[in-house]
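PROTEIN DATA CARD
Card holder: DUF7944 domain-containing protein
Chain length: 129
Origin: Acinetobacter kyonggiensis
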Amino acid sequence: MKLSMFKSLSLGLLTTTLMTFSVTHAATQQNENIEVTPTQKITQQELAAIYVLSEVCPSLIKENDQFKKGYAKLAQEYLPQEQDPVNALQKLSKQKSFKSILAEAKSDAKKAGDVKNKEICQELTTYSN
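Structure generated from the sequence above:
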């Protein structure tokens, strides 16, 4: 529950285009019942929002080591296939094709303001526990 709420809060505050879901509709032939199955897909916007936390948080909180642990855990959950997800996000942030998405995430973080961003960063300090 905490994980779900945290992800929604932190990423929702950073960008409005996060948390997109693809929905599959399957209609049966006889009775027209529709089954809806949500499948979560990680978006570039979500990855940009996560990366922005690494830039915003160190200046807003004192518990930098705890933040790094929480950030690493969050990155690992979103990029489980990566051996070093924090490094993978850093590399992604330097790619030309990712620049506009990253700029949008930075803009959203700036709009959210220091108070909201600090709340998110503070949550990450306890995320690894």
